[in-house]
Amino acid sequence: MRRAFLARVADMIKNEPDTTFFTVDIGMWAIRDVLKDYPDRCTNVGIYEDAMFSIAAGMARRGLVPTIFGIQPYLVERTLEQIKMDLAYQKLGVNVIGTGAAVDYPKYGYSHYCAEDVHVIKAIPGCEFIAPGTAKQFIQLFNQTYRDGHPTFFRVSDHPNKEYDIDVEFGKAAVMQEGKQATVIAVSVMLDDVMQVCKGQDVTVLYYTTLEPFDTETLAKYYNNGKILIVEPEFEGSLTHDVIKAFDGKPVHIEEVAFPREIFRNYGSYDEKIAHYGLTKEDIAHKLVGLLTSN
Amino acid sequence: MQEISKKLRKEALFLSHKCKDGNLQSVFSCLDIVWTLYDKIMNWSPAKAQDDNRDFFIISKGQATLALYPVLIEKGYFQMDEIAPQIGQFNSRYCIQTDLTKFEGGVENNAGSLGHGLPFATGIANANKIKKSPSDVYVLCGDGEFCEGTMWEACIFAAAKKLDNLTVIVDDNNSVGAMVDMGDMRQKLEAFGFDVEVVNGHDMDALEQAFKKLKGLKNGKPKAVMAKTVRGYGSKTMMENDIWFHKSPNEEELELLSREVEQS
Lengths: 295, 264
Known about the structure:
A: Rossmann fold; 2 domains; 21% strand; globular; B: five-stranded parallel sheet; 10 helices
């Protein structure tokens, strides 16, 4: 996904003279040619995110289309006030592409983890949050939004879906299958595992790559006794408000397969973390059975 | 003090009185700077407020917003009759920290959070270079504001990108002296790659000369004017009492302070 994104950036810089790209000292090798050929619009700025957001906002104010690339926790947590005031309040379109979330740098420790990103960005009205499940979907969603005038945050994952690579539309959930006993919300890179568990079962599966704005309209069509399973590669609770709102006061029973809200003090591999925090296929199956058999 | 300096200060006092809020010491320390920019330096007029090649004035020290409104009133862009009853009111366009989202021109940034205006201005200046626009960018900062790390991040960028279309004005009213020892700010800015002029920030002729000298230097270096100013300049009461850092005048104080300004 990262490679596809950087190729798209190179193409953008070469062909669209009102676009700019700043990397906070990562990904340079993949775009070394454009860094060299377009130094005014494609820059490795150094290691600072806060002012970079304000600088990008100033450039958007002058009609340019800036895109920033960095590591997710530094992009969305260090810079919260810049996101709130310079981007969201001033209604300025800047694209922010983050790598590393939630635990794609599994050996680097808590500084590099970012299971909070969805929750943090959804707390700032006016921002968009996109979590593509595949490289193709990144390109589709980027192309649909990068000029839309809103601050748009992309979570680029190193663990994309391999089996399911459908076409996606910004702001819309995709209906993967329809059923009546429960509705499963599969977010981003969780889709493959969700489908392997749910295939052949009488449950609806909705696939979400846009997490803000959240498509409540599609979800509202699949109440299914109010039994909702959210499978999300971020902190638990990141989407519960949206789910409750979608059903407009009707009671819902929400179960989640997600990262628990706690400080991660471990290292190891990505798979070890997925297993430890309960985001495996078996966890999904277990939660779904519990939901289906509940009263 | 020149007549225009007195007039602008009395208008700022009146606006503060009307909205029952404001940071008048800070406003009085930078009014002469803001007026000099709009009157003598910037490519800006009410007719050009939305012109793509206009010069930009960014307020980084947002607490000085009540210095901008009187200047724009004197320039005929805003009307006192409209601002005075509305400033700070629930549905007003006129916040006491500039609000970009309420205007199509005249107000160029959203102020309030310190440490944001300089990098925002730097982004505008960089965009001007990319667009090959002749537009220059002037950004008014407080000396205390330079405690924010984002100010120095922006300085790194401005120098690296050779933004000689950016002028940083430090309203050096020694606010930072009450906080930390910042050392030699001129030396610091020069070390970051800026051309720096140090002037009396209440001497409009000196300010004009400094701005013009820097404007002539198209040498790939960002510019800075260290304007030596006095908090509350123009009112003895305000200069002597730091309570006026954040206080609005009541009817009686309005009369007293206006009289002091008139006599200064």
